[in-house]
Amino acid sequence: MAFLKIENYRKSFGSTEVLKGVSFELEKGQVLAIIGSSGGGKTTLLRCINFLETADEGRLYLNGELLFDAGEEKSRRTRDEDIRKKRLHFGLVFQQFNLFPQYSVLGNVTLARRLLDRQLVSDKKRELVASGMRGKALKSELALYAAELEKRTNAESLALIERVGLSDKLNAYPCELSGGQCQRVAIARALALTPDVLCFDEPTSALDPELTGEVLSVIRGLKSGDRTMIVVTHEMEFARKVADKVIFISDGVIEEEGTPEEVFGAPKSQKTVAFLSRSAKEEEA
């Protein structure tokens, strides 16, 4: 059974149909590269998978569980809390970093975890109160639990920052970092909540060419047997070397799908051939 299954995703904005029935499967630990021209639907697909947009039709299965069914969503009012819980399964690294300028590197990476820790403390309090605990015993138990969460959050955040090579920038602010460094902070932040699927939306498009390599190197280093990733990218060589599966999207549909060897080495669709030819010429220029 596929770890991630997207079934017949459709999405329109007004009269413009952006996704026209996109379906694919991904095994646990695989890296999927999504390629295609601007306006083809790549980013919309990624945003729908991450619950930043809601697909008009389709289903999403994660690890065998039906996580989203457009038909059911239309028949009931989905609470914000439910959407937030679903988003926790996915991490997204944006094109433009989207770091909080008022927080340091450490603050940006730990922020989401600290908000989640607060919720966990609230849940723990309800659990303890339901069991009959009150007064000083309750306060003491909650304080101990909160301290344990904070210790774990700090330790894991520091490890992530070290992993992306920014241990010497813990207290630096986004305005003091290069674009490549900001994107590495964004990657560490996305990893902080240990998502089941880590997604990247054109992670190098906002970077100067000399900074692209450092970010791609970090993403390449994240590849492992248990980390599932989806990368929307215009870096064809990166997709060829790192991806286990490649999807070429054109005009809202999957025009071609296969291994890097199949898509890049022996494409079947004329649209794929034309796109790869244009990409090669742009890289040469």
Automatic annotation (TrEMBL):
Subcellular location: Cell membrane
GO terms for cellular component: plasma membrane
Topology relative to the membrane: Peripheral membrane protein
Cross-referenced Gene3D superfamilies: P-loop containing nucleotide triphosphate hydrolases (3.40.50.300)
Keyword line: Amino-acid transport, ATP-binding, Cell membrane, Membrane, Nucleotide-binding, Transport
SMART domains for the chain: AAA
Every ABC transporter domain range: 4-276
UniProt GO molecular function: ABC-type amino acid transporter activity; ATP binding; ATP hydrolysis activity
Chief subcellular location: membrane
Family, per entry: Belongs to the ABC transporter superfamily.
Protein name stated in the entry: Amino acid ABC transporter ATP-binding protein
Species annotation: Candidatus Protoclostridium stercorigallinarum
